[in-house]
Amino acid sequence: MRGGVAGAAAGVLVASAVLAGCGAPAERVAPGPSAPMPVLAVVAEDTAPKQDLRLVPPEVYMRTYLRVFGGLAPLDVQKRARGADGAALFDTWDDYVSALGFPDYRTDVPRQTQTNALMVATFERLGVALCDRALEHDLKAPKGGALPPLDARLVFAFDLPADDVDGPGFASRFDVLHRTFLGYPADRAPTQRTARFFELYRDIVAGHAKAAPRSRFSPVEAGWAAVCYGLVRHPEFHLY
Amino acid sequence: MRPILRAALVAVVVVSPAATLALDVAGADPVRVAGAARTLDDYRHFRTASIDLLGRMPTRDEVAAFERPDFDMDRWIDAQLGGPAYVERLTRITMDALRLEPNVNFTNAPSELYRHDVLGPDGKPVAVFYRENQRRERPETDGEFCLSPDETGVVVRPRQADVGTPKKVTQKLFDAHTVLVKPWWLYRDFRTKDPQQLYGAAWKEPDPQFRPVESLLHDADGKPIPAVRICREEAATRDAGHVYASGRTKAPPKDAKLPGGRVRPPPLDRPYATQHQGEPVACDTRLGLDLAPDCGCGAGLERCVPSDANNGGGAAFYYPNHMPLGPGLPLDDVRQQAQRWFPYWWSREVVRYLGDLFENDRDFREVLTGKRTLVNGPLAQFYRTIQRGNCCGPEATFGMLQESEPLFDPRSVPADLEPHDVSTWKAVEDRGPHAAGILTMPMFLEKYASARARAAAVYNDFLCKSFVAEAQQLTPSTEPNLMVRPGCKTCHATLEPMAAYFARVEPGNFVFLPQDRFPVHTGACKLDKNGKMSGACTALYDPAFADAKGATLRSAYGSPEHADATPAGLAREVTRMPEFASCAVQRVTSSFLGRPTTEDDRALLDGLTDAFVRSGFHMKVLVRGIVRSDAYRRSNNLASSDWRGGGP
Questions:
Q1: Domain that holds residue B581
Q2: How many Å apart are CA B338 and CA B304, to the nearest integer?
Q3: What are phi and psi of B126, to 5 degrees?
Q4: Do B21 and A190 touch (CB under 8 A)?
């Protein structure tokens, strides 16, 4: 019953609307402003075609990694990186091989040509293992032993000064690492790379001095390890 | 536009940091003086070229050498061409396209040994090797394990669980039906009358890549195994046996008591066996296993491959699953199934073949047309004996009892390569008249198992073309000719004639079907009144292209001429096409530029293709041209985030 009343009312409304529409004047689009829009700001637009940097092939990454690790075979690197100290720095190559972007011809998985989250995480894990083990080899003398000569060091081919390192002292040592990982002198690097890494180094040294629990690295060692992490994970290391 | 922008970017990148650094380390870095003549662009180019040609980033020493005034980049590039990293790089480009690694198991019945433990006289397990379906003259064991269920207490079947309760086998039975053999996987001198050079003992310094699993080397107590016990028939060493007819032509009644407690009746004589009883048969063929009890695994069991179990998953050797840097730098070390042993080496054959092509800068067309190859010990064993066991099944109906024109002629195999000479590779200059580069290698033929898959792989990988179906509604059709069927013909008008080149290579296999026994059109196979063909005919001839008068060889209907031209004909045709050279150039250029090539690269590609063809299809000319090009120098362009002064 109620529905019938409502339906009748709706019919009247529709009819009224149709009649009103027929009698209304045609809508018109208002013209735009006669004056040009005011310029609030100018932003340069780069329309040149861009070529993204390409990902270093995983074979190159691995061969470089092995070479920096002392020219060892993969299974030897795996053994040394895993170590016996329970640091869990490294799993096995088999755990990393697909994440690094290697193709798997057997299952028609193509090589990956772009990074992804898992790949970046793997780069980080491998990089940390490399830096830590290299630091132990290069800068931490075994009990009763001596440090290896500079030309036998894997990554840190410099001596640490007795006192805290200053800007020039940092720069010359940073250049060694920069050449090792990125293949050119640090002073050719874009932006204030050396200064920023020096800032990173000092922050880590300062933070590590008051860290608890104590690390197996001294504050200075931790500082250089952090610099190494920064370079081995740098986009320029993985791209070319 | 791009070069101008590039120059501007370089200026920003080089000048800006130097000014900043002056605040921190002015005059403190001697390196800057040494490298002052090199721009960042120069360094990046050197690093890029090192990555592409050395296969790794440059060392500090190499960067220092690059900084010297007398460093000659062009000379350095030339020095890298032909080096191992260059070879590996070009091989990788080709393998990325072809993906020729095995995800297949391979075995054929004549070569596959199973191992089963039975209880010895003292109650201890004794491992006995045997082959499935081995013919034996005893009806109790003909086509089965050489000791009957009545003698062992159990029904022994490959890939099946034992049925029954084991009981001790007497020494007399062992002596009667099994023998001890010193096999090839245990003895380096297995061909001698009394081998002495046992693996791990007198066999000094075995090939480090030849590593049998422990279970083949040591018994359950950890003691070295000096010899293996194997069924007597399998131990036969002769090359030719004799067709055996048992006289059994009718199956026994269902309730009949079977001899020796066996659970299935002994095999019946085939008509062929009855007709050819006593005639010689080659022991390394399928027919030898099926018909001749006096055919076995040959001297030192060379014609057979062991596994350490009674199932298909038995292991045999260690080798890596992953070795992206080559076999000398494996990432793992895995106990592998026996059935993967030969596929593993098939893949290595392709890599070696490509490596030889690039290292010696051979004519790249040989990738499809070459007659030669390189083989090592396992491949020599495979081509010498194992591959012959693939033949002949349905082919026997057409009178081919052993492969008459194999793709790899066993007589071409170097005689001095033993199965365990894993690291020794020798060139075979001519595999045989039907050889055609990688197209007739087992890895290609197994990876791409059908004629169409093989043709499509060539079309994609060597002509850089794809089959793209037109967008149209497919209508139901019974037209078997896909070259005319609506909706199919777009691709198949091209694909079927190409596939026909592979009609003479058995699908999923590599048995060659010679023209004299397998004409494209034969009257020996035809449809019967019910529209059916016999099983043997159907295996090789296509019922869809048959009538009451004859039938057409499978995959040949697209072009009978191509079928007779064989894969070698396809190789000749494809390498004559202009797309072959342009595809190779495009693929290599794209890899070195690190991006797909576009129409903007047309001038570069045309120039490179012209030089590549004029050189006689030599890759060094192509790669040298790429690496020296401006496009390559610019390929390591800076991302916008870099030149805007992004992160550290």
A1: 577-635
A2: 11
A3: -125, 125
A4: no
CB-based contact B40:B6 (threshold 8 Å): no
In a domain, A29, yes or no: no
Of B49, B80, B111, which residue sits at a domain end?
A: B80
For residue A20, pLDDT over 60 is answered with no
Nearest to A105 among B95, B325, B332 (CB): B95
Q: Where are the alpha helices (DSSP H) in A69-211?
A: 74-82, 93-96, 117-139, 167-182, 193-209
A171 vs B25, B103, B328: nearest CB? B25
Q: What is the pLDDT of residue B636?
A: 61
SS3 B49: helix
| Cα atoms in the Cβ-side hemisphere of radius 13 Å centred on B332 | 13
Last residue of a domain, one of B51, B80, B109: B80
* Category of A101 on φ-ψ map: left (φ > 0), alpha (ψ -120 to 50) or beta: left
Between CA B511 and CA B523 the distance in angstroms is 22
Dihedral sign computed on CA atoms, order A17, A22, A23, A27: positive
Cα angle B374-B378-B383, degrees, rounded to a multiple of 5: 70
Q: Residue B528 has which token pair?
A: 């019967």
Q: Is residue B387 part of a domain?
A: no
Could B325 and A111 be called an inter-chain contact, meaning their C-beta atoms sit closer than 8 Å? no
Domain assignment present for B12 = yes
- Per residue in B237-279, pLDDT (tens digit) is 999 999 999 999 999 998 999 999 999 999 999 988 999 999 9
Name the residue among B16, B45, B1, B118 with its Cα closest to residue B633. Answer: B45
- Report CA-CA distances (Å) from B601 to A15, B184, B597: 67, 56, 6
Per-residue pLDDT tens over the stretch B172-214: 999 999 999 999 999 999 999 999 999 999 998 999 999 999 9
Q: Which residue has the tokens 């793997």?
A: A122
- Name the residue facing A53 among B99, B325, B639 (closest C-beta): B639
The pLDDT of residue A8 is 45
E-strand ranges in B96-227 read: 114-119, 125-130, 154-155, 163-164, 178-181
Q: Is A40 within the bounds of a domain? A: no
Q: Do B17 and A188 touch (CB under 8 A)?
A: yes
Residue A76 lies in a domain: yes
Give chain A's domain count. Answer: 1
Cα separation, B210 vs A57, whole angstroms = 30
Residue B19 lies inside a defined structural domain of this protein = yes
Give the three-state DSSP class for B631: helix
* Smallest CA–CA distance from B643 into chain A, residue: A190
The interface pTM score, or ipTM, of the predicted complex is 0.83
Q: Are strands B178-181 and B114-119 parallel, antiparallel or unpaired?
A: unpaired
DSSP B212: B
DSSP B189: T
Query: Does a structural domain hold residue A170?
Result: yes
What is the span of the domain harbouring residue A228? 58-238
Question: How many domains does one find in chain B?
Answer: 2
Q: A157: nearest CA in chain B?
A: B60
- The reply to whether B636 touches chain A by the CB within 8 Å rule is yes
Reply yes or no on whether the pLDDT at B640 is more than 70. no
Residue B379 forms part of a structural domain: no
Chains A, B: CB contacts within 8 A come to 191
Number of other residues whose CB lies within 10 A of the CB of residue A36: 6
Q: Collect all residues of chain B within an 8 Å Cβ-Cβ radius of residue A179.
A: 31, 60, 63
